[in-house]
Automatic annotation (TrEMBL):
Residues 608-782 form the PCI domain. Residues 85-94 have a biased composition (Basic and acidic residues). Gene3D superfamilies: Winged helix-like DNA-binding domain superfamily/Winged helix DNA-binding domain. It comes from Immersiella caudata. PROSITE patterns: PCI. Residues 1-94, 808-867 are annotated as: Disordered. Residues 826-847 have a biased composition (Gly residues). Its main location: cytoplasm. Belongs to the eIF-3 subunit C family. Keywords: Coiled coil, Cytoplasm, Initiation factor, Protein biosynthesis. This is Eukaryotic translation initiation factor 3 subunit C. One of its GO terms (molecular function) is translation initiation factor binding. InterPro entries: EIF3C (IPR027516), EIF3C_N_dom (IPR008905), EIF3CL_C (IPR058999), PCI_dom (IPR000717), WH-like_DNA-bd_sf (IPR036388), WH_DNA-bd_sf (IPR036390).
Length: 867
């Protein structure tokens, strides 16, 4: 410090500072060399001292030389004490001990006020401080005492909570839970000292045992450390390095510590997942016991799944294959080591020093985990991978081959859970077995029976011959229909909710795929799923739509045109087939889709190999609509008094658009072929219509193509006959059956049957003379235009009244019924007020009946069984 900034006497301040420096130097310098240097310096200053004696007479008694700067012993005792107090320096170890004591005091204060948030924070701080003090030796005794007191206080608090439940605030409860979780694990490292303290606390605290420091390793030269590390290098020339640059040593004893470290870092930022996977692969190589192998495999498979945890990306192919192989190894280990089981809800083993052993009275070593969750995730990752691959490439086919190995894993998982259920002492959740059977069902319900049979044979080859399934025995693996029936029946009995509904839909789909129409239709109707399917999740609704479409296609293959059209109407009539069947995302006009909704839509899409051909679906729907609509249009055109009805609005719009075209060239696609066939059928040219329908190439995708074409030709002949009769009935008095048989190349008995059915259903005002085999037409009273318009006005007025009454009933909550009965306008009176006398097809005022004795009453499948 500069002297210009000093206050008071400069000489006194300078002398005091010099005195302090010299007093310290005399205490520290005790060697002879330093004494000789001091003597030489005194001799050197003698000349100066002599010159000063003449001028300073009063200072003659004072010491001379450098010693004159030293304070006298008598005068400086108190000052020395102050100097020692201010210049006392604490070592780093003492400072750490003081910090430790302060933290312990903070924990004790937190106990007094029952502040567990403060205790948790101070406990974390305490553990960090004791690591620096411990230095590889024993922990400080005060720390051990604090641990014991804190554990006792925690147990008392938990006991009080159980006896007299008192609601703790959220912060306090979190702190208590944090301490509860950490203190058990932390105390294991100091168990010997804790036991000694609990045995005799006074003797433990008064013992003179010093902390035994761990001898520090002598630092080797860099080249020596490098050569030592070279001995442990792997084949690639590198080795795994942990924190601090130290090489990780993989031994059977260190497996659990490494796994604990990996589990704690899972999900954190800046975590190298690839490095963790490579570490666990090395740990599996050194694992010896089944418990070690099971723990490493479960952690390894979970780490691989983390690689595909992103919403947009799928799991890498090589890691998926590795996870599938590791799951197979895990199931094999569990099959061999029958005393080790992986089960949900088992207690976590937290001891990293040793593995659990079977105690007296125990049959199994329970490891917490869920095999079915691993299998479900593996299945989902395969689906995501197939969604991301272009289905028209060879890569998709190669990836699809992995489904066989995945099915084997699912099958082995089912056998494992069945084995667990055999032991009554184990509480195996029934839901786990239901979930894995549902996954197995999801992979076979849409496949032909031949493919299912091959899958089953390969699955049984992968397991040992001693194993058998109670649910699906080995003897039933040859029959695919029996296998599906067995799996679905098991889920019907042992599950409920969504899994049960999905099992029923899968069985209906499989039956419809194999032409079991009546069984599939009856199951669909008795399930009543159409009533509450809107309350299910999206994937179940998609499965319902797929099943409905498959039932409609099955009805078409059976020649049941009306049933097929009614079943497909709900899906194909909406114009949203892609979206409803999860086979593509529809870009809707005037509707903005958020990125989140678009992502969810893409996740719901089915892989390409599960798709139903939409072009074939449209072709079937339009063909069925043509066979129903063309005779109906002919009937409406020839009888103005017949109420106009529409079976398929989609087909009507297409037909109107096609008729408005000025020039129509030869048909190019499926829709054009059906429209051209419709025009030919309406004109009575049934051969031309048959040619157009048979020219559609999409029929080749259906099984037994020739039989389907034969069925269509027969249907077109019959509907052509009905269209001709509706169109030209007003122009005939009698018509020979033989003539009709020659025109449409039908057997006379078939013609008679068609005409009789039309007469009985009141579609045709005629009579059939079986003796002469002629059709005798009845001429009804021709209605004038005024009468026709009056009937139309009457129908519109009736419809308006019904609408008003429904609105009134809705607003008055049912009182409209009484009102309508008072003024005599009930539904029955209106229906009977008109009716007879109008003749022909309008007899009785009810809706006209259609061919086959079936009413067009709408609904997906309800009308299919009313015939």
């Amino acid at each position: 410090m500069s002297r210009f900034f000093r206050g008071g006497d400069d000489s006194s301040s300078e002398s005091s500072s010099d005195e302090e420096d010299l007093s310290l130097s005399e205490e520290e310098t005790t060697t002879k060399d330093q004494q000789s240097e001091d003597e030489s310096s005194d001799d050197f200053d003698d000349d100066e001292d002599e010159s000063e004696e003449s001028s300073d007479d009063d200072d003659g008694d004072k010491p001379k030389g450098l010693s004159r700067f030293l304070l006298d012993q008598d005068s400086s005792e108190s000052e020395e004490e102050d100097v020692e107090a201010t210049t006392k320096v604490k070592s780093a170890k003492d400072k750490r001990h003081d910090e430790l004591e302060a933290t312990i005091t903070g924990i004790q204060n937190g106990q007094k006020i029952n502040d567990w948030h403060l205790i948790a924070n101070e406990f974390d701080k305490l553990n960090r401080q004791v690591v620096k003090l411990q230095d590889g030796g024993k922990a400080p005794k005060s720390y051990i005492k604090c641990l014991v007191q804190l554990e006792d206080f925690m147990n008392e608090t938990i006991a009080k909570q159980k006896v007299t439940p008192k609601k703790m605030n959220a912060t306090n409860a979190r702190g208590l839970n944090a301490v509860k979780q950490k203190i058990k694990k932390n105390n294991k490292d100091y168990q010997e000292q804790i036991d000694a303290y609990r045995k005799d606390s006074d003797a433990f605290m008064e013992s003179d045992e010093e902390e035994v420091p761990v001898p520090k390793k002598v630092a080797k030269p860099k080249f020596e450390a490098f050569t030592a590390a070279d001995e442990d290098e792997d084949a690639s020339g590198f080795e795994t390095v942990g924190k601090g640059g130290k090489a990780l040593q993989f031994t059977p004893e260190s497996i659990f510590k490494h796994l604990r470290t990996i589990l704690e870092s899972r999900g954190k930022k800046n975590t190298d997942r690839q490095e963790q996977i490579s570490i666990m692969e090395k740990l599996f190589k050194v694992a010896e016991t089944p418990y070690q192998k099971i723990r490493v495999l479960m952690t390894l498979v979970s780490a691989r799944f983390d690689l595909g945890s992103g919403g947009a990306s799928s799991m890498p192919l090589e890691h998926w294959k590795s996870a599938e192989k590791e799951l197979g190894v895990l199931l094999h280990i569990l099959e061999v080591a029958k005393d080790h089981i992986v089960i949900e809800g088992a207690e976590e083993w937290e001891d990293d020093e040793r593995a659990p052993t079977l105690e007296e009275g125990q049959k199994y070593i329970k490891i917490p985990g869920s095999i079915v969750s691993y299998i479900e995730r593996l299945d989902d990752e395969l689906t995501r991978s197939l969604q991301a691959i272009d289905p028209h490439t060879s890569e998709y086919i190669e990836r699809l081959t992995d489904e066989g190995s995945l099915y084997n894993i699912i099958f082995q998982g089912q056998l494992y859970y069945e084995a667990l259920q055999k032991d009554a002492s184990l509480e195996v959740p029934q839901e786990s077995l239901n979930r894995i059977i549902q996954r197995r069902l999801d992979h076979v319900y849409y496949k032909p029976a031949q493919v299912v049979k091959i899958l089953e044979e390969n699955s049984w080859k992968q397991v040992s011959s001693s194993l058998d399934s109670k649910i699906t025995p080995r003897s039933q693996s040859e029959e695919a229909i029996q296998l599906i029936n067995t799996l679905c029946s098991y889920l019907f009995e042992n599950s409920e909710g969504i899994i049960r509904a999905r099992a029923m839909l899968c069985q209906i789909y499989f039956l419809a795929l194999h032409d079991e129409y009546y069984k599939a239709r009856d199951m669909m109707l008795t399930s009543h799923l159409q009533e509450n399917i809107a309350n299910f999740d999206i994937t179940s609704q998609i499965l319902y739509n797929r099943t409905l479409v498959q039932v409609g296609l099955c009805a078409f293959r059976k020649g049941l045109v009306y049933d097929a059209q009614n079943t497909l109407q709900e899906i194909c009539g909406s114009g949203r087939q892609k979206e409803l069947l999860a086979q593509g995302v529809m870009i809707q006009r005037f509707h903005q889709v958020t990125p989140e909704q678009e992502r969810l839509e893409k996740q719901r899409q089915l892989p390409f190999h599960m798709h139903i051909n939409l072009e074939l679906l449209e072709c079937v729907y339009l063909t069925c609509s043509m066979l129903l609509e063309i005779p109906l249009l002919a009937q409406t055109g020839s009888s103005p008094d017949v109420k106009k009805r529409v079976i398929s609005k989609t087909y009507r719009r297409m037909l109107e658009y096609h008729e408005r075209q000025i020039f129509t060239g030869p048909p190019e696609n499926t829709r054009d072929h059906v429209m051209q066939a419709s025009k030919a059928l309406a004109a009575g040219e049934w051969k031309k219509a048959t040619h157009f329908i048979h020219s559609i190439k999409i029929w080749d995708l259906m099984p037994s193509t020739e039989s389907i074409k034969t069925m269509l030709a027969k249907q077109i002949q019959e509907e052509g006959l009905r269209t001709y009769l509706f169109t030209y009935a007003p122009f005939y008095d009698t018509l020979a059956v033989e003539t009709l048989s020659g025109m449409f190349e039908l057997d006379s008995r078939k013609v008679s049957a068609v005409v009789s059915k039309m007469i009985s259903h009141e579609e045709l005002a005629a009579a059939l003379d079986q003796v002469t085999e002629t059709v005798i037409f009845r001429k009804g009273v021709e209605l004038s235009r005024l009468q026709s318009l009056a009937l139309t006005l009457s129908d519109k007025a009736s419809a308006l009244i019904e609408t008003n009454e429904r609105t009134l009933e809705h607003r008055t909550q049912g009182s409209a019924n009484a009102f309508s009965r008072k003024d005599g306008r009930g539904g029955g009176q209106r229906g009977g007020g008109r009716g007879g006398g109008r003749g022909g097809a309008r007899t009785g005022g009810g809706p006209p009946r259609q061919a086959g004795g079936t009413q067009f009453t709408g609904g997906a499948l309800g009308a299919a069984v009313r015939g």
